[in-house]
TrEMBL record:
This is Enoyl reductase (ER) domain-containing protein. Pfam families: ADH_N, ADH_zinc_N. It comes from Paenibacillus wynnii. SUPFAM superfamilies: GroES-like, NAD(P)-binding Rossmann-fold domains. PANTHER family: L-THREONINE 3-DEHYDROGENASE (PTHR43401:SF2).
Length: 342
């Protein structure tokens, strides 16, 4: 089969490799679309703390069941359209024993620690395969994993009806967080974003956007929140400026959720956090329940036509151009999600 293999840091080769051999309770999936994630960029650069080469990247993918080696998944058949929750937990550490599989001490993912979806075929644990309704297209189904991140992030932030929400960073994950926040009942969802083209996309979804390069974020936010500050702030940019803005603009006793990976150890305004009694929250991937609920949520969005999720996808490229897609993200040229097709 054809696969885009990260053979060394900053080097991907499109190679012919064997089709994965199934073990017990595994499913072989013929990949239709795979999303390129910021994590793929981190791995590509050799900055991921536990990834190793060679590996086939890709933890955001959808496809069709090709082969089944499972006695437990009688609900699945050849040809079923599916997505896969890509987490691999040890099942033995304290977090796993408490049911928090998604923060396993030695958490691994398909496409990072084992071969993933940048290939014609990928194998996955049968228990992690989720069947799709026909109402959702393959392209939208490929957005399930980032939407699961957005779902879990909002759960961690406690987003609720009537909240005023700020999202710092309007890339694909920021957009997803905003959509889910609205689904949670947020009254107003506001973005800060520097890229004017992304701002146009944000506004096309009905959200508000402020460009810090030429607008007064503090003054506009004070007007939006009636000087109370935002109930929940999602820091998605990973920037030092974003982190300071998060604590500055958050309401007294509000919640700041850290989503974006900082490029270096950041500084924080601890005094402001103390005086405002802010709750600072980390958020890592998602639970399996979050992932399955995300699939149902996406189906509801598609069936109700609440949002045109195709607009989140900015580029579609053949898998042979996986490295070009990653380079495009490094240069910041993509306005939304890049999908690889097969």
């Amino acid at each position: 089969m054809k696969a885009a293999v990260l053979t060394d840091w900053e080097h991907i080769e499109v190679k012919d490799v064997p089709v994965p051999v199934l073990g017990e309770e595994e499913i072989l999936i013929k990949v239709k679309y795979a999303g390129v994630c910021g994590s793929d960029v981190t791995i590509y650069k050799g900055k991921h703390p536990s990834a190793k080469t060679p590996v086939i990247l890709g933890h955001e993918f959808t496809g069709v069941v090709e082969k089944i080696n499972s006695s437990k998944r009688s609900d699945l058949k050849i040809g079923d359209r599916v997505v896969v929750e890509p987490l691999i937990s040890c099942g033995e550490c304290a977090a796993c024993q408490e049911g928090n599989w998604h923060v396993c001490r030695s958490l691994k993912l398909l496409g990072i620690h084992t071969d993933g979806g940048f290939a014609d075929y990928v194998k996955a644990p049968a228990a992690k395969v989720i069947k799709l309704k026909d109402s959702m297209s393959d392209r939208i189904a490929a957005l399930t994993e980032p939407f699961a991140v957005g779902f879990h992030v909002n759960q961690r932030g406690g987003t609720k009806a009537g909240d005023k929400v700020l999202i710092i960073g309007g890339g694909p994950i920021g957009m997803v967080i905003g959509i889910v926040a609205k689904r949670c009942g947020a009254d107003r969802v506001v973005f800060t974003e520097l890229n004017e083209a992304r701002i146009e996309i944000i506004k096309s979804f009905g959200f508000e956007a402020i460009n810090p390069s030429h607008e007064d974020v503090a003054a506009l936010s004070a007007e939006i929140t009636e000087e109370a500050g935002y109930d929940v702030v999602f820091e998605v940019s990973g920037s030092q400026a974003g982190l300071i803005s998060a604590t500055d603009l958050c309401a007294i006793r509000g919640t700041v959720v850290f989503v974006g990976f900082p490029h270096k150890r950041p500084e924080a305004d601890v005094l402001k956090t103390i005086f405002k009694e802010l709750t600072l929250v980390g958020s890592r991937v998602y639970t399996f329940q979050d992932f399955t609920r995300t699939v149902r949520m996406l189906e509801e969005i598609v069936e109700s036509k609440q949002y045109d999720l195709e607009r989140i996808i900015s580029d579609t490229m053949p898998v042979e151009k996986a490295e070009e897609a990653i380079q495009k993200m490094i240069r910041g040229e993509n306005l939304g999600k890049i999908l690889l097709t097969y």
